[in-house]
């Protein structure tokens, strides 16, 4: 749950930063990476909004804001945003169907009826008792969160066996052609 909670927090923060970049005018309309970051954050916020925790309604609102943002980018000619908007539309339909199954009674095209209902079988990573202030979060504050500290405090995995397989006859079966000047003959390059 720590990883899920960290992803949700980072998605909230990323969405907020990208929105601020748009407002400040530093978000390039045709930049693929900012558009991809926005879509990634929106995807995580969509999943978080289905968890029905105490922040799920805010996550749903941020998801809708990111979807509108992507739509504006698409309207301005961003081809990546055009592709991502198709995925956002599919997510909205799936979210509406999930909400209707859980008793949210959302209509087929209505995606604004995402209110938390206690009949959900999902749990929210945010409800694990670790407070998170949704406003004015800086990068330093996000790194000082207890859940992220727990994640970062885990022992480093011993992956030395990967390097050993490369150096200990791991490439023995590969064919390496001989391109040395000694192997070239003048007749091989002559026109026939």
Write the layout of secondary structure elements.
Blueprint: H1 2-24, H2 32-49, H3 56-75, H4 79-101, H5 139-143, H6 146-152, H7 160-167, H8 186-189
How would you sum up this structure, described in words?
With 192 residues, the protein is mainly α. It has one domain. The protein has eight helices and no strands. The protein has helices at 2-24, 32-49, 56-75, 79-101, 139-143, 146-152, 160-167, 186-189. Helix 1 crosses helix 6 (146-152) and helix 3 (56-75) packs antiparallel against helix 4 (79-101). The relative contact order is 0.13.
List keywords for this structure.
56% helix, extended, 192 residues, mainly alpha
> Termini, distance in Å?
70 Å
Helix amount: 55-70%
Number of domains: 1
Number of helices: 8
Name the overall outline. extended
The counted number of beta strands is 0
Q: Note poorly predicted spans.
A: 105-134
Radius of gyration: 25 Å
Order of helices and strands: HHHHHHHH
Strand-residue proportion: under 5%
Q: How would you state the average pLDDT, rounded?
A: 75
Provide the structure class.
mainly alpha
Characterize the biggest β-sheet: none
Compact overview of the structure:
This is Fungal specific transcription factor. The protein is an all-alpha fold and 192 residues long.
